[in-house]
Specification:
This protein is mainly alpha-helical. It has 19 helices and 5 strands. The chain folds into 2 domains: 277 residues, Rossmann fold, CATH 3.40.50.300; 129 residues, no CATH class. Helix 2 runs antiparallel to helix 3 and helix 7 packs antiparallel against helix 8.
């Protein structure tokens, strides 16, 4: 069991003991650093809960086959994704080393994305789902085309179709909810009450800590009286952000940070790459066309330019971190609008003109939010500055909602945001 979960021996022992002893609790909470294997373990648990035999990875029972391809009807998977770069990473591996192992890695990376658009989760929200439906249908057709090419030993034609899959997946990534919508939680709860197709249903909720209060309350209701035929697996990289009532209803399984040597071994074994990385997250994030370090640099200039203008207008807005960012923007003589236009040029208008940059809008937004959070945590920040930071943070969240819900152009949203806080085109 858990042959594909590397360098987490203690976790493997815990989970194996529970599964073999028939003592798996209704809810498990997997916590640990990003890239520590939580999602791998959760998917493997789902397979083992359904397996009709001994649970080996290469088990040939019908349930295991469907779980390996992430197409089992008893599996529900949702929540924000950790590594939207996974399709492009596995695509590179598949194209360079076309075999059954790389094929499964690539297909599973796409299925993890497609699972977020299971009609079960979107019941009653078909209008929202319609935005993603064409890409979902296209991906299914493209995966079938790849399977046909492999069956006919036409690996030389894979490069083109795989690149098309990655491009389609990039566009679909932009539609994945950024948090855990209340409607999905309610739909999941209704689905959990239905009889499973096989032995048991499994619900996997990634990044459970991102759920808002109403969603958490809906989650608690199902965890208080869980159906016997369902097991819930919640994952989080921020244990402290998981509310106490959910912690009390879940069996905690802690994943350890892998060492740099272990991370490099995994990257080499799973992707045949010799990149010198210190952790798995680092490996994936570096593959992004708009990597975190780039987003952080641009976001610091953007926030600095906004704060510089605010400080000019209100002498009460003071703070060491904020002043440092404002000075950096001033030294480069760059305005917030100019930062945005520069980033838009680098990212094909935040992905609207180039699908591979579809996650750049939220990468930039997250980086800006992190800058604001660091200023809020700075003890030298004045009360006036903290009030201003609250306003900026609130408007950033509103922009995310407008983008997700109303499909507003990200470039125009950001320019409107800058204009709202004193910048002019």
């Amino acid at each position: 069991m858990f042959e594909n979960l590397l360098f987490q021996d203690r976790v493997k022992e815990q989970l194996t003991s529970m599964i073999e002893g028939g003592s798996v609790p209704p809810a498990l909470l997997f916590t640990g650093p990003e890239g520590s294997g939580k999602h791998t373990a959760a998917l493997e648990c789902a397979r083992l809960f359904s397996c009709e035999k001994e649970g080996l990875w290469n088990c040939e029972c019908a349930d295991c086959k469907r779980h390996r391809s992430l197409s089992h009807p008893d599996l529900l998977l949702f929540g924000p994704r950790n590594f939207p770069q996974e399709p492009s990473v596995t695509a590179e591996y598949f194209v360079h080393f076309p075999n059954l192992t790389s094929y499964y890695a690539f297909v599973r990376s796409i299925r993890k994305l497609l699972k977020r658009f299971d009609p079960v989760l979107w019941a009653g929200e078909e209008a929202r789902l319609s935005k993603a439906a064409p890409a979902v249908e296209t991906l299914e057709e493209q995966l079938q085309e790849i399977q046909t090419l492999l069956s006919r030993s036409k690996s030389q034609a894979l490069d083109t179709i795989v690149n098309r899959v990655v491009e389609t997946a990039s566009g679909l990534e932009a539609v994945v909810p950024d948090g855990v919508p209340i409607f999905m939680m309610r739909n999941m709860a209704a689905w959990a009450m239905l009889t499973p197709v096989g032995k048991r249903k499994t619900v996997i909720l990634q990044n459970a800590d991102t759920a808002n209060e109403s969603t958490r309350n809906a989650m608690l209701k199902i965890l208080e009286e869980p159906p016997e035929t369902v097991r819930f697996i919640l994952t989080s990289s921020r244990r402290a952000a998981v509310i106490a009532t959910i912690l009390s209803r879940s069996r905690l399984i802690s994943f350890e940070q892998r060492t740099g040597e272990q991370a490099r071994h995994i990257v080499s074994r799973l992707f045949r790459s010799d990149e010198k990385v210190e952790n798995i997250s680092d490996f994936f994030h570096k593959k992004s066309p708009f990597p975190p370090d780039k987003a952080e640099n641009e976001a610091s200039l953007f926030v600095g330019a906004l704060l510089g203008r605010a400080m000019e207008e209100d002498a009460a807005i003071t703070g060491d971190k904020a002043s440092m960012l404002a000075r950096q923007a001033l030294e480069q003589r760059i305005s917030a609008i100019e930062v945005l236009r520069d980033v838009a040029g680098q990212t094909g208008s935040f992905g609207t003109k180039n699908a591979k940059f579809s996650d750049s809008f939220f990468a930039f937004m997250r980086a800006a939010a992190q800058q604001l959070a660091s200023i809020a945590a700075d003890p030298s920040s004045s009360a006036a500055l903290l009030t201003h930071i609250d306003r900026l943070s609130s408007k950033l969240r509103d922009m995310g909602v407008q983008y997700r819900t109303f499909n507003r152009a990200p470039e125009l949203l950001l320019e409107a945001f800058a204009d709202m806080f004193g910048e002019r085109p």
